[in-house]
């Protein structure tokens, strides 16, 4: 299955699955033009949709997320107003980035953002109580 992102301007408003055969050309390759032809044949405006390719787009489309047409990337919803978009990995991150030992940087520590204080805090697991 492939994913079609239905767009309203640059905002993802719906996500639909499409069978691979509906977007595969005669050479067996996934082809956006074939998918757009399928949409036209079924009464939809192909200009309202973007066919998601994981190797190109990096992030899967998400409802409420946006699409950067100049970079051909889907961008998830910004989790906090103070965060910045890292255009290397197309992920939101705290201003100044994650600590070097954070899982997001390949480290082993799990941090959480406290937006009220604009600080990064090490996540401490508490034992499960019955």
What does this entry look like structurally?
This protein is mostly beta strands and 130 residues long. It has helices at residues 32-41, 54-57; strands at 2-8, 11-18, 49-51, 66-68, 73-75, 84-86, 91-93, 111-114, 119-122. The strands form 4 sheets. A 3-stranded antiparallel sheet has the order 2-1-3, covered by helices on one side. A two-stranded antiparallel sheet has the order 4-5. A two-stranded antiparallel sheet has the order 6-7. The longest helix has 10 residues, at 32-41. It is elongated and about 55 Å long. The protein starts with a strand and ends in an 8-residue tail after the last strand.
Question: What's this, in brief?
Answer:
The protein is mainly beta. The chain has helices spanning about 30-40, 55, and strands at about 1-10, 10-20, 50, 65-70, 75, 85, 90-95, 110-115, 120. It is built from 2 helices and 9 strands.
Break the fold down into its secondary structure elements and pairings.
Layout: E1 2-8, E2 11-18, H1 32-41, E3 49-51, H2 54-57, E4 66-68, E5 73-75, E6 84-86, E7 91-93, E8 111-114, E9 119-122
Antiparallel strand pairs: 1-2, 1-3, 4-5, 6-7, 8-9
The number of helical elements comes to 2
Overall shape: it is: elongated
Q: Please state the average pLDDT score.
A: 91
The largest sheet, given as strand count, sense and whether it forms a barrel, is: 3 strands, antiparallel
Strand order of the largest sheet: 2-1-3
Work out the helicity level.
Answer: 10-25%
Strand content range: 25-35%
Classification by helices and strands = mainly beta
Radius of gyration: 19 Å
Report the strand count. Answer: 9
Uncertain stretches: none
Order of helices and strands: EEHEHEEEEEE
Distance between the termini: 42 Å
